[in-house]
Amino acid sequence: MTTARPQILCISLSPITGDSRVLRQISVLREFGDVTTVGFGPHPEGVARHIEVPPGLATLPQTLTGVALLATRQWRRAELKAPAIDFAAKALRGSKFDLVVANEARVLGLADAVAGGAPVWADMHEWAPEERTHILSWRLLVAPFMVHLCRKYLPRASAVTAVCGSIADLYFSVFGVTTQVMRNSGPWRDLKPGTVDPNHIRLVHSGAAVAGRDLETMIDVVSMLDERYTLDVYLVSGGDGGAYLQSLKDRAAPCTRIVFKDPVAPGELPKTLNSYDIGVFWIPPTHTNARLTLPNKFFDYVQARLAIAIGPSIEMQTLVNEFHLGTISSGFTRDECLDSLLRLSVDDVSRAKKAADTAAHTLSFDTDAEVARGILRQTLAV
Predict the structure, then answer these.
(1) Is there a contact between 285 and 257 (Cβ–Cβ < 8 Å)?
(2) What is the pLDDT of residues 194-218, one digit of tens each?
């Protein structure tokens, strides 16, 4: 007689097939049970069932009723008012699960509602109260709602995770919940560092074209470098219809050494990036998540066996220093970022690429997957 596998629900109001963190999460969930996903876009590979949220549905209470509830601080009534969440709640009606995984704060109320007493793993990713603090309406209406969701539901969760130690510490200090670290690391790749041509230093950047990350600095810095340096950019649009991405292309247009490439699927990035020399990412600390960022691209650069050029971002610089992965600028101005690249000799770049090769196992999902497995063993009692 065979025992039925646990039924696991994974909620992520993102295009899941392009969400590296959620895809890695699902890869571990599948080891422990049959997975149902809820999110935008097509059926992720390997899951038993997928509930596709219609494109364009807002993931926050952005209807007239929802905004009124936020404005009058009626947060409890607003929890399920976002159109995407309302759709998911109706689609899941009558379903039973042994574990619910909630990706990010906005789905915590939905996860609690559909769990029916089953354990909830809250994967918060970053610091929820400051997800979009550069937008005034977010600061006034949404940030207090995020605080409400965290304060109400995180203490009820069976497990809470975040992308780095500094953000985990914030969840503990503000909401009193023990938060485990599960980084944005990718799977280990069997790649080798390439040789560095002293006459052609190949820079690369990958990620999303999100306003506020000051990707203009990267373009300006490369424009200031000499002819030995080129930059290839792999960016997906950041949800604004491609407006910011187009502005970056326009800014870079005078410099023929900067080329915008078609986006690459998350699983293919390390292999694609392996032909380059230095992965670059300078993001000013304009809010908490920027100050403490430890993004997918950092780990993609490591798996691609690249040297890394970053600013003095707390979490990234700790790993760059520990594993000797590259160069850290003294600040985030164009001149400071430029100077950090000019300090790198060809031998320095070669050494950093070899250091990335040495660190690749430690800084891979092979390590972080064990955090997920520990949570699943505990919550599913297996």
Answers:
(1) no
(2) 999 999 999 999 999 988 889 999 9
Q: For residues 133 and 131, what is the distance between their CA atoms, to the nearest angstrom?
A: 6
Topology of domain 7-186+366-380 in CATH is Rossmann fold (3.40.50)
* Location of each CATH 3.40.50.2000 domain in the chain: 7-186+366-380, 201-359
| Separation CA 91–CA 289 (nearest Å) | 32
Q: What is the DSSP string of 258-313?
A: EEEEPP--GGGHHHHHTT-SEEEE----SSHHHHT---HHHHHHHHTT-EEEE-S-
Residue 172: how many other CB atoms lie within 10 Å: 14
Rounded to whole angstroms, the Cα distance separating 165 from 84 reads 31
Cβ contact 294:184 at 8 Å: yes
User: Which fold, 201-359?
Assistant: Rossmann fold (3.40.50)
C-alpha 38/C-alpha 64 separation (Å) is: 25
Q: What is the pLDDT of residues 83-104, one digit of tens each?
A: 999 999 999 999 999 999 999 9
